[in-house]
């Protein structure tokens, strides 16, 4: 039987005022849903059908695809169904499913956020393992090192802040000074809790700005008092947002822009009768932001925005309308396309690779992007522009190969439902954004989800497109050499291995989050964890920089290690996929091992933990003189690496360390490293 | 909301349970997987399906699904 709520028209309610607020509180408005394909009942019914047959855990890989077609109330309902399925059941059926333990605490009732967060994470293929704090237990949860919150080992901890955290602490009647006083105390308390969190957890803490619903200022009849309340409230939120500058483990979700888009802060009945102070709509929006943050902290990074061109980047069809006929400015539609181009350029300037895949002849596209006087996006903004008549999924696959990326790091935006459908069918791991027929909504479709959200943007990010373009140029040069050695010698590679400075902790963290292929353990580390390792006298956080005749590659990798008595333990070794197989990895490993040997250490230990994407480095240690100590499943590996996983542990006796290849100039600054 | 069958379908769809007719009169604390927060999800869905508001305090005081059905259809 069909779900009655989707087969019956939404009827008018008796109380018109409440209807408005309740509808605004229900969830993201349908008008903001052009990014979701197949909106309607079909995916919702398929999901309900799975639920009814008790098959959600068994068929969990299908869930992500079904959710991609849901928005608003349907997505909220899907969250209800999914949150009933224990994470353990899904993991038992599909052991490889990425999962995130998330602790949720706060001042008022926080459990209603669980279904929303379950659904939002499932959209990324990530399973939620929630840990829920008791009502109003956030101070205890975060301040007591022995609390269950810390025992949960959560990767991300969210502490939901709502206005009653302040208004529960003011007298009746109250004035703006009372609120200012309470806010001052609460923000100071939160700062102490953040500091405690950093001591007791290696994860990420998520706070939010505290929204001020109208029911509070409306209680002040003097407009001057109301202005004062508005000022002290915003100053407090500004203090809260400022905390991220001093605390690397902290993220603060700013709810003000969400509310500005028309999401109600509270639902009066839920607030009054159930102490749920934030509306379901706001919790859903919060969950969306938090899910992207969680996605970023567990290394599921989107790296490339691939745009169609005709009626996506410009109005009209280049092949039919010609260079002069396409719309990119100075008309209603032209200005809308220009706005979208500006947003794409903005995103591309922050480390997201831009590419174009278009069914067009190459030459006119090249001319449009170089010669059109009003074009905002130019050839140089794209890492590659693919214009041909081949199927887009083939072009996307080739692009991924050339960039050495996986297609699951692609976000593809196209106005053609046909093209989107084909890409979805052929490459289900690509995130597909549906652009509508009205270009004014293009940028909403692109920005509704924070697909490219990252904990921090680094200098390397800003230069990334140029680096990938140079890499594509290297590939073309390489095809002219008969032997790989000649090519490598011609590149004139210079490598520097040196301890990371404080200014590089964000970048090293990001390397652990973004790197999937040359990542020996896939251990994801937040900036604060990098800092802790770097500051540990026995710890070693090394960065790898490389340059060659095409230019500076910037930081291309990192080595994390520590010493334990006579042993060097290499915790992880990471290298950007841009610079594989040029001897950089061997050279850095040799330099490190040589340093260990001359420092009087007796052995080096390394670990490889297989993941779906790092198979190509399974032989990294044995190929470089290490011998396997324990096969997976052959009993517990030796301390200090005892972990119940599929790791293989390798040992090097430091007697004979491989030479650094002659074609490469290696500089290692390891003098200050622990010995 | 025309029948108890429709009501039950809505309950199961909204809350993610697999309840049958025999569960309608059962106390909530005897329903496997029941959580008091489900009442709120259900209330929102009922208001959308019926087009009129249902008293939240009354729903929160209900002891079984039958009470809620009565509140929703206004008997």
Which helices and strands occur, and which strands form pairs?
The complex is a heterodimer of chains A (675) and B (75).
Chain A: H1 4-7, H2 16-26, H3 42-52, H4 60-67, H5 72-83, H6 87-93, E1 99-106, H7 113-123, E2 127-132, H8 138-143, H9 148-151, E3 156-160, H10 164-167, H11 176-200, E4 204-208, H12 223-242, E5 250-253, H13 256-260, H14 268-274, H15 280-297, E6 304-307, H16 318-325, H17 332-348, E7 353-359, H18 362-371, E8 384-388, H19 392-403, E9 410-414, H20 417-426, E10 431-434, H21 442-447, H22 459-462, H23 464-478, H24 484-491, E11 493-499, H25 505-514, H26 527-535, E12 539-548, E13 551-564, E14 567-575, H27 584-598, E15 603-608, E16 627-630, E17 648-652, E18 664-668
Parallel strand pairs in A: 1-2, 1-3, 3-4, 4-5, 6-7, 6-9, 7-8, 9-10, 11-18, 14-15
Antiparallel strand pairs in A: 11-12, 12-13, 13-14, 15-17, 16-17
Chain B: H1 4-15, H2 38-50, H3 56-61, H4 65-73
Helix pairs in contact in B: 1-2
Task: Explain this structure.
The complex is a heterodimer of chains A (675) and B (75). Chain A has 675 residues and is α/β, with parallel strands linked by helices. Mean pLDDT of chain A is 87; it is low at 1-40 and 633-644. The longest helix of chain A is centred in the first third of the chain and has 25 residues, at 176-200. Chain A contains 27 helices and 18 strands. Chain B has 75 residues and is mostly helical. Chain B has one domain (4-73): Non-ribosomal Peptide Synthetase Peptidyl Carrier Protein, Chain A, CATH 1.10.1200.10. Chain B is globular and about 30 Å long. Classes of the chains: A alpha/beta (675), B mainly alpha (75). The A-B interface holds A 1, 3-5, 8, 10-15, 18, 22, 26, 48, 51-52, 54, 73, 77, 80-84, 109, 111-112, 269-270, 273-274, 276, 280 and B 1, 5-6, 9-10, 12-18, 33, 35, 37, 40-41, 44-45, 47-53, 56-57, 60.
